[in-house]
Amino acid sequence: MRSNHQRLALRLGAPLLVALLASLNVGCGTPKANVSGTVTLDGKKLPAGMIAFVPAKGAAVSAEIKDGAYEATGVPVGETKVTVTTSYLKEQADQAQKGSQQQGQVNRHIPESRMSPEQRKHFEEQRKAAEDGAKRAKEMKEKYRAIPEKYTNPEASGLHLEVKVTGNSYDVPLTTK
Questions:
Q1: b/e per residue, 104-118, with b = 16+ CB within 10 A?
Q2: Predicted local distance difference test score (pLDDT) of residue 102
Q3: I want to staple 39 with a disulfide (CB 3.0 to 4.6 A). Which of 26, 111, 130, 172 is the partner?
């Protein structure tokens, strides 16, 4: 049987333990928030790209830009530097185009009339893949817009945002001048 002192300690101890554990958790990790907005280049919506929020400490958080709009989730609260990049679109388009050209050339040395049904099927699949790759490359190239190199560097972009716990809207007006 427990004494009055033991029962009192249990009654007070549990809430104190919960309060202590909660206070220890307060300092763990940086709070995160969402940021959304529009990215324009010379007043027109940027068709595609990536935006990144680079905090003083911790990992950067990036989001895809589609038709000028983006929504970044999990951005650390506090001062962040911001970058925008589009060069990967051109690189991917060039790779997709090169790959589609290579696929389109496979088995061209065998006349279709001499192909077995399996070879013909495989050849048609390769031709379709090459056409799809060429189409993707064309779409990426159409969306690509060259932006000044300074916007890709967090130290030189001149873009920054004080991220708050809620209500973060950040429009990014880029210029080529």
A1: beeeeeeeeeeeeee
A2: 62
A3: 172
Which helix or strand (DSSP H or E) is residue 27 part of?
A: none
**Quick count: other Cβ atoms within 10 Å of Cβ 91?**
11
What's the Cα-to-Cα distance from 121 to each of 86, 105, 118, 124, 132, rounded to whole Å?
38, 15, 5, 5, 16
The whole model's pTM is what?
A: 0.69
Nearest to 50 by CA among 36, 70, 32: 70
Question: Closest Cα partner for 134 from 105, 106, 93?
Answer: 93
Please report the DSSP string for 36-104 in residue order. Answer: EEEEEETTEE--EEEEEEEESSS--EEEEEETTEEEEEEEESEEEEEEEE-HHHHHHHHHHHHHHHHHH
Walking along the chain (177 residues) 10 residues at a time, the average pLDDT comes out as 48 38 48 97 97 94 97 97 94 75 58 81 82 80 93 97 96 95
The encoded tokens of residue 116 equal 């077995």
The pLDDT assigned to 156 comes to 96
CA dist., res. 21 & res. 15, Å (int): 10
The backbone torsions φ and ψ at residue 153, rounded to the nearest 5 degrees and listed phi first, read: -110, 120
Res 133: pLDDT: 77
